[in-house]
Structure formats: structure tokens, C-alpha cells
Amino acid sequence: VARADGYKDVARELSKAARAASVKKAAVLPFIFINRPLSAGPVIVSERLTSRMSGKAGLELVERQLLGKLLSEKRLSLTGALDAAQSSRIGQILNLEAVICGTLVDIGDERIEVNARLIRAQDGKILGTARSQVKQDWKEPALGSMTPRRTGEATQAIDLAMISVPEMLYRAKCASCHGLDGSGADASLKPADVSPSAMDLTSRRVQSRGDLELELQIEHGGRRMPPHGDLPGVTQSLSAEEVSSLARLIRQLGRERTAKDGARRAGAKLFEQHCAACHGFDGRGSHLAAGLFDADPKALDLASPKVAALGEEQLIAALKKKKRKMMLQPSLEPERLTQLWLYLQHLARDPL
């Protein structure tokens, strides 16, 4: 629900972080609107946040018009993809101790989610974060009035890799078809006649492609994937920097999948050693064990939807408590319990 003054909530949290880090001078940069590329929102939100934070004890904020003027004088712009080092450099050039930046997401019903970061200029470290919802009470300008600015002039668009823009861009443009983890398993818009494996960006088939090939497919489509301008929810062409950032993120999803697969294989060995005697090698439960412990075979079913719905922390807590007559000896370290959880999730999704 949009807060009566969500800006005040964000200002309070960031001011608290600034005090804790002894930040005396900062600037609020225009935010990035993730799913609405042409919008007055980034400038309006940064203006209002500046107003809410101005006058906070011990914190000096550079006014937005002055910030734009200083950037122009230094032949700098807020346009394009800036990594942590570049953003820190801007802060250093303008003699700032920190910058405040973030993202906006349209979540419907005239509600805008604001995600803000306080970034130390010296090394790009995130000193504090804040999130809230605000009501969109401004009117968007007509597209024709959003004219390009002259080269070298500061603009309202900013793409900071250090505040996880690629991840948010992926959520907005890709996750509905490929899933949040890239596997396609939880995709909401996956075509009914297409298997999750065909949408799996973490597969060897996709990960074996070169960087240029990945970028070309994102930009122009390929096989059953249309060009990104024709994809659900993608009405604006992606910039070259955004295409490259998505390709890098797909690589990262592949690395995470490889690490998870390794952990799951380790979990399979743990399951065989500690669990299979009672729960069966398929996790469905052993009738012999049910009779031995006078238990309902269903209670021994670890591949059930009920178990699959348990989060990692819930399942690990149950394993640690060794509920009822469950025997798990010796006690397993947290890392090994996580491996076991990953394998149980796999059993529930893909029964043997």
C-alpha cells in the first residue's frame, strides 16, 4: 500500500545511514524507472526526496540544478551504464562523500515502489538502503515532449550497475517467460506448448553460446523467441548497454545453476547415507520403515508437495529438531543441510 508519505520513510532510513557513516555531503541522483523508460518520475522522486532530506542535522545535499550544472562543466552526464567505480568517480570529482540513487517500479494502481541506496563515493560501498511505496500524483508528459538532450547535457536517465539494475531489468523484461532463476520453471507467461527446458537460460545449450551470439539473440530474437520489442511487457527498445547487461546476467544465472547442481549432487549422497533407509531412495517412504516405527507411510513421503513447499529455513529447522522418531546422525553442518534441502526440492519437482 502506498504510504501517506513514503518519501519521508526513505529519507529517514537514508539519513540514519548517513549519520552512522559520518556522511556530511551528498547528492540525490535521478532514479531509474525500470518498467517505464520515458517518465517524469525519476526527476520528481529525486526532487521530493531531496526536499525531505534537506535540513537533516549534519547533512548537506547538493541541489539538483546545481548538480546538473557541475556535471556539464566537468563534461559528465548521468546517461549510460555506470559501474561502481564510475559512480564513485563522479562523487569524488564533485567533492561528495556519497550519492543517493535507486530505482522506481510501477506496481499498478498508481503505486510506485521506490528502492533507494546510499553509496559511498570513495569506494562505491552501499552504506544504507530503503524501500517504500508512493502514489503517482504527477502527470506523464506526452511522448513528443520527451525530446533528446544535447550531447554533454545532463539527463534524467541513469543506469547504475552497482544497484543491481541488470537484475531488475531481467525481472521486468525476461522473468515472465524464463522464470526468476532463468530455468523457466516458474515462468508465468511460458507458452503452453513449450516445455520449461526450452525456456531454460541456464542450460548448457544456452550457456555454450558466445557473448555476441547471446546479445544478438536478445536484440533480434531467434528460434521461437521474437525480437525483444515484440516480447510481452517490452514496449521500448533496449539500449546496447542494457542488452550487454542482460547477457552478463544470463551468464551469472548459468554459474549459479552450476553451483546449485553441484550442491544438489552432494545432497543426493547425504540423502542416500542418512535418509534413504526410512524414506526410500525415491523419497516416497519405505513401508518397512513405516511398520517398524508404527508410522503412516504418507508421513515418510519427502517428495510430497507439502515438503516441496517448505522453505530452506523451515526444512532445516525441522531436520535440526529431529521431529518424532527421525534419526539424523551425526548432526549435519548448515552447508550440508542446505545441500540436502536442494536435493529434496529436486525430488519433489522431478520424482525418480
Mean pLDDT across residues: 73
Q: What is the total number of structural domains? A: 3
User: What's the CATH H-level homologous superfamily of the largest domain?
Assistant: ABC-type transport auxiliary lipoprotein component
Report helical residue fraction: 40-55%
Overall spatial form: globular
What percentage of amino acids are in beta strands? 5-15%
Distance between the termini: 44 Å
| CATH domain class of the largest domain | Alpha Beta
Walkthrough of the structure:
Helices cover 43% and strands 12% of the residues. The chain is of the alpha/beta class and 352 residues long. The strands form two sheets. Strands 1, 2, 3, 5, 6 and 7 form a six-stranded mixed β-sheet that branches. It has a two-stranded parallel sheet with strand order 4-8. β6 (111-120) and β7 form a beta hairpin. α1 (6-20) packs across α2. The two termini are 44 Å apart. Mean pLDDT is 73; it is low at 79-84 and 142-164.
Write the layout of secondary structure elements.
Blueprint: H1 6-20, E1 25-28, E2 32-33, H2 41-53, E3 60-62, H3 64-73, E4 81-82, H4 84-93, E5 98-108, E6 111-120, E7 126-135, E8 159-160, H5 165-173, H6 175-178, H7 204-207, H8 211-220, H9 240-274, H10 276-279, H11 287-292, H12 305-308, H13 312-321, H14 334-349
Parallel strand pairs: 1-3, 1-5, 2-5, 4-8
Antiparallel strand pairs: 5-6, 6-7
Helix pairs in contact: 1-2, 5-9, 8-9, 9-14, 13-14
